[in-house]
């Protein structure tokens, strides 16, 4: 049975109740946040930038971004309202420099060329239409902007066992991309692949970083993709 957004919404709504206390926090999520934070520091240093975090969950990563990069303007997007509601105290603490928005990663509620960098960590395997999600991320990146996508590394035997056997047994027919497939998705969307790096450990993961060319022609996307307005963002805001 194909994996769909209804299933993803139900799963993440259920997981939101224990998300911040789960066993994956020390095994995968904390190392993932460190890897993304290091890349942001390398790319931007102390310069201001606009960041969109797709699949933000309860906001742990964007809270760290706000503390580490005080000049960054951050939008945190998640499909599941329950995740955003579980992070309500965090949103209140970090203030107006981070804006939580409920929205669909395959139909981003933002106008073209809005962000300097997009991050997406450990949620991409839940997206039923991964090619469309990547095209949407390309669309809202500024020319020269970066997409940093992190997900489980399944090309080696241990990662294959974790993600293609164990995770799919629990979560259903989710899809962790191989390195080759991820490169294909970036290229298909009009993004230049800059680097792919494997992070080893109990839960290995792959970081893929691409760039929207400065003179790129926008990749094809659905007619509805660019229709987002400030009103829709405000309506979805927590």
Automatic annotation (TrEMBL):
A GO molecular function held by the record: methyltransferase activity
Keyword Methyltransferase: yes
Keywords: Methyltransferase, Transferase
Domain Methyltransferase: 52-145
Gene Ontology annotations of biological process type: methylation
Listed InterPro entries: Methyltransf_25, SAM-dependent_MTases_sf
Protein name, UniProt field: Methyltransferase type 11
Organism per entry: Isosphaera pallida (strain ATCC 43644 / DSM 9630 / IS1B)
């Amino acid at each position: 049975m194909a994996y769909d957004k209804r299933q993803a919404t139900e799963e993440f709504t259920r997981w939101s109740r224990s998300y911040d206390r789960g066993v994956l926090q020390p095994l995968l999520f904390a190392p993932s946040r460190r890897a993304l934070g290091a890349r942001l520091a390398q790319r931007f240093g102390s310069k201001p930038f606009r960041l969109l975090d797709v699949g933000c969950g309860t906001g742990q990563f964007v809270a760290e971004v706000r503390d580490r990069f005080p000049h960054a303007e951050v939008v945190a997007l998640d499909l599941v309202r329950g995740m955003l509601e579980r992070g309500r105290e965090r949103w209140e603490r970090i203030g107006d420099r981070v804006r939580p928005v409920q929205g669909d990663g395959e139909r981003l509620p933002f106008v073209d060329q809005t962000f300097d960098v997009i991050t997406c960590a450990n949620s991409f395997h839940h997206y039923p239409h991964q090619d469309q999600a990547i095209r949407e991320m390309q669309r809202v990146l500024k020319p020269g902007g970066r997409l940093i996508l992190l997900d489980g590394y399944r090309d080696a035997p241990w990662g294959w066992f974790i993600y293609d056997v164990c995770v799919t047994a629990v979560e259903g027919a989710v899809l962790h991309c191989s390195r080759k497939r991820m490169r294909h998705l970036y290229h298909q969307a009009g993004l230049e692949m800059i680097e792919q790096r494997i992070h080893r450990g109990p839960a290995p993961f792959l970081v893929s970083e691409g760039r929207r060319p400065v003179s790129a022609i926008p990749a094809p996307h659905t007619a509805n993709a660019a229709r987002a307005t400030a009103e829709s963002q405000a309506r979805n805001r927590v």
